[in-house]
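Weekly puzzle thread! Below is a chain. First person to post its structure in token form gets bragging rights.
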Amino acid sequence: MTIREQMEEREKLYLSPYAAKSSESAGRDVWEEPCDIRTIYQRDRDRILHCKAFRRMKHKTQVFLAPQGDHYRTRLTHTLEVSQIARTIAKALRLNEDLTEAIALGHDLGHTPFGHAGEAVLNDLCEEGFAHYKQSVRVVELLEKGGEGLNLTKEVRDGILNHRTSGHPSTLEGQVVRLSDKIAYINHDIDDAIRAGLLTEDMLPVEFSGVLGHSVRERLNTLIHSVIENSIDQPEIRMDPEIQAAMSGLRKFMFQNVYTGSAPKQEDGKARYLLTYLYRYYMEHVDAMPEEYLNLIWIRHQSTARVVCDYIAGMTDNYAVTTFENLFVPKSW
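Winning reply:
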């Protein structure tokens, strides 16, 4: 019996009846010889961790565009915090940690430069629309490895696609990531907003902080405990209704006071302008894109608009700015 088979047997004995077992996966679109050491979900996690799109997230905006400081979250650090919270919950509920981690690490691979401002402008410009959760799946199914994709399992791709608020993951592990994403960003965005001088703890509405706690540590502790206590040996992942309502209220407060109304977010207008001009330029100068993207059009028969979105969405913040400068800003000679 291989090491992988031993681990699969241990999953059957230890994991919750509601957990996704590695040996029961619906598999990949293209069959592969199983690894003798790693389970199928461990291989998915490793593929995501080593892909180019994962590395690029370290230079993509989470909330604050081009902040002056080393301690603000990026898309990558957000992803790692989601993974940590999700694994804590999954372990406590005896769910499949490897599947949970793979979904968490891959959920934001398709995010644009400049955060949700970038996502919104591509959605406005592209006649086919643009959504980061769909783009994340497109990254792992097609864009990575020169158009071959990562050939991930159906369960991981389902969790990535359905991590959005309105999503309905088919596994409890996907449900854990979906909730952990919100737990993570609400709390770390409060922390970053306090660091930026936009908020203080006292400014948070007492009807929410009174339920959840008066620090990031207290809020995380409350939310994570609520998920675990209300989901043990249950066929769905849920939270205490009062705590769920407080979290939703705090999320709404952040949208009104940080995500859309704060001074740093005024830079979003410049990001929209920059990405608009890049999109229009590449729609008119398709051959200026790298060969791997041209192959998507000429060999894979993808639409020009979709591939231009692929190229721009894959850019880091700095690369998008540098590309704009090279294309549109006059240089001395």
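Puzzle host: Confirmed. Bonus trivia for everyone else. Residues 3-328 form a domain with the Hypothetical protein af1432 fold (CATH 1.10.3210.10).
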